[in-house]
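Schema walk-through. Below, the input block comes first and the output block second. Nothing else is stored per chain. Lengths vary across the set, and this one has 258 residues.
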Amino acid sequence: MVAKENSTEEQLLWKRWIEYKDSEAGDLLIRKYTPLVTYHVQRIGASIPKNISRDELKSLGMMGLFDALNKFDYSRELKFDTYASFRVRGAIIDGLRKEDWLPRSSREKAKRLEAKIEELEQRLLRHASAEEIADFVEMPVDDVYQTVQEHFFSNVLSIDEQLQENDEVDSKSFVIRDDAQKTPEQQMVKEELLRDLAGQIQQLNENEQLVLSLFYTEELTLTVIGEMLGLSTSRISQIHSKALFKLRKLLASEMMNA
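--- output ---
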């Protein structure tokens, strides 16, 4: 009964907003969906340097929420929280990309670290642990995890930007491309990569597998995962970073072929 009343109340708010641009109704809708912004700030914040203000991320996310509120077509059979999630996440990612959130010094640090990792692993003739790498480069092990994680996220942003640029070029042609349809070769490569990734994930310890599953499959935040497992958010972040580090070779290969 309460859920039905809440639904009716929200419908009235949307009616007031869409038909009359009632500022009070718009403010109430923004308040109702602000937790979406907090959610995406926490998820994206897990992969970027701690010196980047979470308030700045929230500001970017709120801009995305305002944009969603103004552009949402309430008559369509689409939940606003689903539509707004894309807008909020996109606004945060776009803001980070435009601001070049990872300084040149950090990018150079990541490249130097990758070169050192390659050198060490050639000496050892096997994959090196984070502890071995930290000792080799005389760097705290947590810095090794953080640098690798930031490097992954930076590459993801770069790939996304390239895809957007390609879409802009393609949009000027008269050929309509079906991005949802993969060629047989692309499908085969994807399936092989997923098999390899699944095999690599199975080699992780139980906690690492669980955290990756909850974060990427169930799309929970690190804070929520910590509450579920009875661990601190910082501990969950450490487990997440360690898991990504162990998968770094395969993930790097995936990003290069994206």
